[in-house]
Design goal:
alpha+beta, 4 domains, 8-stranded mixed beta sheet, elongated
Length: 867
């Protein structure tokens, strides 16, 4: 491999030695030196051919050819720095965009969840009435565990807010109530201590509670003390004993809508029994399939179990109960799969457009090198050898483009991380790993084959005789028709990508225009663990005295927040037993004045007052959706609903009849683009829960946050304040996914449009250069400058119009695939087509105008001398 030159020189010396021996023999026979040399060479044959055969038959001859091709290719790229820079940068942009999006796809869609036996983990949703992804009750979990044969474990979790355990400053954190077998489903072992055992399930209300803490709490609260296990610490109003510490990298990855935070700080055990068929549903369930089982068989079993639960007690009111089994991996990415696949398709289009551009550059370059290629063929170079050389040059371009693409991909990944929505933020770290590197260079090899086809086919169709006669004129694939075909392909792909981008941009605009049912401007919020009613009222009065504050109230669930939701079924008077558990509504606990504080509209009736407590008739306020559903032809005020409240204390649920005293306009609580459930509002006295304080101000009020913390500390020094944020942040987060998709799509389409524009400009410029003599003749025999401009523009727009036609046909097939990402606009919206058509035509006109103006300024005399 490395001593090839020396071996060839040795072989040449050997030939010369044989020749000299023959010359000496002939001279001894009486021939002169010149005659002897001539006769010896005649007898030996073609020395050069012998050397070539030796070279070709050597073991590493193919390697030498490759090295030669690489050296020659690098020299050719160095000779044309402008061409090389444009080609490499074009490929780098296309490959880099693919690398960045594939990095996200790899992290979110392809990489297994960081749990043991992740492929066997499934999420189990309950379905009841109008809720298909609902949590389960203790009773339902008990029945599933007793009857399943497809799952070897079924565990549950519920997450809420609570105080940080231990001594020191009070801090509100995420606290999870879990079944004893839940954590072993997702984690092999704790960093310290042990997991929960069945005997850790609480038996007495005031018993010392075993807890497991996160690694973060262990470090910042207890200094990473290895002796933390079995230590008794303060946890809320009572004591707890620490039995375990979770690993540092452990996090919970649950689907959107499950209200399970990624980072939970404290876990405690909950008891599972079959005591109350109508108990509250609050547990999110995870199951591990038995070896050999699958989602389909588990779903069939779940259907049977749901039927048994429905018929378990004919008087229980459980009807229309369902169970849904989904792969945890697939369910986690349900909300983002469509967006990522659209973006992945978009970057593929950008790469194809880039390949078309580079192919056009290579064809133009092949025409310039036509004389060189013809001479090489005439001197004996085989077509296979020429194709090998051209393929090597294409691979060099692709390899250099891939190297630059890694830098572009890295920068693009950083940009994506900066704007990614919460639905992507919880699904793993996005980085360039070995799989991404392999993908990048695989794409580089594939693209080199794509854009390298054009010059290779040119060699395959080379007419040696014709090329020797007219070595500067384009033939075969180097003709204008193939350049135009590639431009048409660029326009078609760019048109489809622009259409999709236009749909997403209009979706984002529509999301911005959505009325959420409240006014978020100048409203600040912060959250508290369950406070007393007296503390809430006093805090309300103290904050109202602060300058600039217009109103203060509280709600259990801030609109568009991702905390644990609270919803339950309801029924009106006269509803048959079998229909009492068929419809759900969101429940919200509020203080008087809440609707006015957030700018919601009370349509009928009245707001709550201090007298609306457990000692008086229970009252509720419902939204207009629920009012129209239950009483479409009459007034809802004064009607009764059976609901769940907890007048005895937090989470002490009971069913009560409550009178409707008001109707409020529906508030978008879960999404800006979908109405999930109607809403029922309950006075705080009837449903004490963790609360969020909402404060409306006349404008920006400095020092409000610090004052609020001080007021809370004055009323209860052990009451932590958390999640201090303006209400507008929640609205912005709800818009983030639509903004993410539209921003990335707009970036990709801008690149695609720029590349298509460069392609049109390059082809027309090349055409003008090739037709300089023709243009000169036309102008010499009377064609005006305007005629020349029309001719060049017609060439350009012929390709553009063909591309638009193909793009339109492609869009009829592809744009319906993004229907799930749209809001307020349809895939076939003619307004969108018209807008994108105008954009493409304007950009094409600009790209065509510059070469046309250059053609118009050609001097006929100089043009006739061009050849």
């Amino acid at each position: 491999m490395f001593r090839g030159r020396r071996k060839i020189s040795d072989f040449s010396a050997e030939i010369e030695a044989h020749l000299q021996l023959e010359i000496d023999r002939l001279q001894e026979q009486g021939l002169s030196a010149e005659e002897a040399r001539t006769a010896a060479r005649r007898a030996f044959g073609n020395v050069t051919r012998a050397q070539e055969r030796f070279y070709e038959q050597r073991y590493w001859g193919g390697w030498d050819h490759l090295l030669q091709d690489i050296r020659f290719g690098l020299r050719m790229l160095r000779k044309s720095p402008g061409f090389s820079a444009v080609a490499i940068l074009t490929l780098a942009v296309g490959i880099g965009a693919n690398t960045a999006i594939f990095s996200v796809v790899n992290s979110v869609l392809l990489r297994p969840l960081p749990y043991p036996d992740a492929d066997r983990l499934a999420i189990i949703w309950s379905g009841l009435g109008n809720a298909n992804r609902a949590p389960a009750s203790n009773f339902e979990v008990f029945q599933i565990r007793q009857r399943t044969k497809e799952f070897d474990q079924v565990g549950g979790i519920w997450v809420t807010n609570g105080a940080l355990p231990g001594d020191g400053d009070v801090e509100q954190v995420k606290v999870a109530s879990v079944t004893a077998n839940f954590l072993p489903l997702l984690c092999p072992k704790p960093e310290l201590g042990r997991f929960f055992a069945p005997e850790d399930e609480p038996n007495a209300p005031n018993a010392q509670r075993p807890i497991i803490i996160s690694h973060g709490v262990w470090v910042r609260r207890f200094g990473g003390d290895p002796g933390i296990i079995d230590r008794v610490v303060r946890f809320g109003p009572r004591s707890a004993v620490v039995i375990g510490v979770m690993p540092q990298n452990f996090r919970l990855i649950f689907p959107g809508g499950s209200s399970i935070a990624t980072n939970v700080d404290v876990f405690y055990s909950t008891r599972i029994d079959a005591s109350d068929p109508l108990g509250p549903a609050y547990l999110r369930l995870i199951g591990r399939l038995r070896p050999g089982s699958n989602i389909a068989t588990a779903q069939a079993e779940a259907d049977s179990i749901a039927t048994q639960i429905t018929s378990f007690d004919g008087n229980s009111g459980i009807s229309n109960f369902r169970l849904y089994i989904y792969s945890l991996q697939a369910e986690d990415v349900r909300d983002v799969r469509g967006t990522l696949l659209f973006l992945f398709g978009g970057v593929a289009f950008v790469l194809l457009i880039g390949c078309a551009n580079v192919a056009n550059l290579l064809m133009a370059r092949a025409t310039q090198r036509l004389r060189e290629t013809t001479v090489r063929v005439a001197l004996g170079a085989s077509r296979a050898r020429l194709v090998s050389q051209l393929l090597t040059e294409s691979l060099l371009l692709a390899f250099l483009g891939a190297v630059v693409a890694l830098g572009i991909g890295w920068a693009a990944v950083r940009a994506i991380l900066a704007v990614r929505p919460p639905s992507l933020a919880n699904l793993g770290e996005v980085h360039l790993d070995l799989r991404v590197l392999a993908f990048t260079f695989a794409v580089a090899i594939l693209t080199s084959a794509l854009f390298g086809l054009a010059p290779m086919i040119t060699v395959g169709r080379l007419d040696l005789l014709q090329s020797l006669k007219e070595a500067t004129r384009p033939t075969g694939w180097t003709g204008r028709k193939w350049n135009s075909a590639l431009v048409s392909a660029e326009v078609a792909l760019g048109f489809v990508l622009l259409l999709g981008t236009g749909l997403l941009m209009r979706t984002f605009v529509n999301v911005l225009r959505v009325d959420p049912g409240f006014r978020a401007e100048n409203v600040s919020t912060f959250q508290l663990p369950p406070p007393s009613y007296e503390m809430l009222r006093q805090l309300q009065q103290n904050l109202m005295a602060f300058p600039g504050v217009e109103s203060v109230s509280a709600v259990s669930h801030i609109p568009l927040d991702d905390t644990a939701n609270w919803y339950d079924y309801y029924w009106k008077e006269g509803t048959p037993t079998e229909l009492r558990s068929t419809t759900y509504a969101d429940h919200r606990s509020i203080l008087p004045g809440y609707f006015g504080t957030i700018g919601a509209t009370l349509l009928h009736g009245r707001d709550f007052t201090e007298a609306d407590d457990a000692a008086h008739e229970h009252v509720i306020i419902i939204d207009d959706l629920l009012a129209r559903e239950l009483w479409p032809d009459g007034d809802a005020i004064g009607k009764k609903l059976n609901i769940t409240d907890s007048p005895s204390g937090p989470y002490q649920f009971q069913r009560d009849w409550a009178v409707v005293v008001g109707v409020v306009r529906h508030i978008q609580c879960h999404s800006l683009t979908a109405i999930v459930r109607p809403q029922i509002y309950v006075p705080f006295q009837l449903a004490p829960r963790p609360m969020a304080i909402v404060v409306r101000t006349a404008g920006t009020v400095s020092g409000l946050t610090n004052s609020a913390r001080k007021q809370v500390a004055l009323l209860n020094k052990n009451m932590p304040v958390s999640r201090v944020a303006p209400l507008s942040d929640y609205v912005a987060r709800a818009r983030s996914e639509s903004r993410f998709a539209s921003l990335l799509a707009m970036s990709l389409s801008s690149v695609a449009l720029l590349l298509a524009c460069i392609g049109i400009y390059g082809v027309l410029s090349y055409s003008v250069a090739q037709r300089t003599s023709e243009i000169g003749i036309r102008m010499a025999i009377g064609a005006g400058r305007s005629d020349v401009m029309r001719m060049v523009l017609a060439d350009g727009f012929a390709s553009v119009l063909l591309g638009l036609t193909v793009g339109f046909l492609l869009s009829l097939v592809l744009t319906p695939l993004v229907a799930g990402l749209l809001f307020g606009v349809k895939p076939g919206d003619p307004e969108n087509y018209a807008m994108i058509l105008v954009v493409v035509l304007l950009v094409s006109a600009l790209a065509s105008f510059l070469p046309a103006r250059r053609a118009m300024r050609i001097d006929p005399l100089m043009a006739l001398r061009h050849e």
